[in-house]
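USER:
Try writing one entry.

ASSISTANT:
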Amino acid sequence: MKKIIVAVAALALMASSAYAAEWNFYGSARVSTFWSEADEINGDDGDWQYSEALQSNARIGANVKVSDELTARFEYGAKDDSANIRHLYGEWDFGSGSLLIGKTVTPIEVTYSSQVYGDDATLGGYGDFDNSRHAQIKLTFGGFQIAFIDTQESYDAGTTTHDTQSLIPMIAMAYTAAFDMGEVKVAGGYNTFEINDDEDIDSYGIGLGANLNFGALGVFGTFVWGENLDGLAYTTGTDFEGKADYNGTDVDDCESIGGTIGVNFAVSEMLTLEAGYGYIHDEMDDSGDSDIAQTYYLQAAITLAPGVTVTPEVGMIDERETGQDETIYFGAKWQIVF
């Protein structure tokens, strides 16, 4: 009898704790329908291909409020038609700042484009600065954020593998100045690891961005510069991908520089037009080899009903170099938020 009473008391305690927290669930179903053709520059023409898929950033999740000081969030996406964790964290507001523990967007997020092709690519890798979502320990003080993230051991050595050693986490920082017309942001990061007890591969970068609104008209722009940016979990759109090259003896660092620019205009509550352009240039420090890539698009976001949108878009991804691809695409993203 005593065991039954204890079990009932435990269940009651769990129920009361769950009831005390406020759970606000949300979801977003996203399907892309696009036609694309990839032509080899100064080479063979490709064939038009149609693709339709549930986007990997389709999601379901909840924002949780435990108390005024303690909040949390979880969100699952649909990568490869299976659930994957996009966000899972708790955050404690201790008065002068907050402490976040878990997986979410890092402070390195300087991107404002609404490009929908490529599962909402947002000009990713073509002049923005965004290392996406990672497990982290993050401190926030007003507009300033600093996070400590697992080391990214990224480099290019062909098919050869080497011993690596990491002793400190990746460090990501950002400061955002928000005001009535929008925001201005600066972000930076540093990552390092040792390879074969011989060479260090260092990654560092800085990103600047602004997103401004003048009534119905909006403009945005970003700038990125750095060394071995793939080591900051930011893969550039060139064939070099922002990776350092290691030949077994020496490291050849990859320097990247690029930017994005765009404009949008709210024609009405039902229609917003946007155009954007992104550019990235990679150059290997020792060999001097370089690679350029760019992308641009034009879209119209149409609201059919509250929470129901379709976004037709046409654009191009131009890898610029002979033997690489020039991809033209058109189609639409279909989305219902619930």
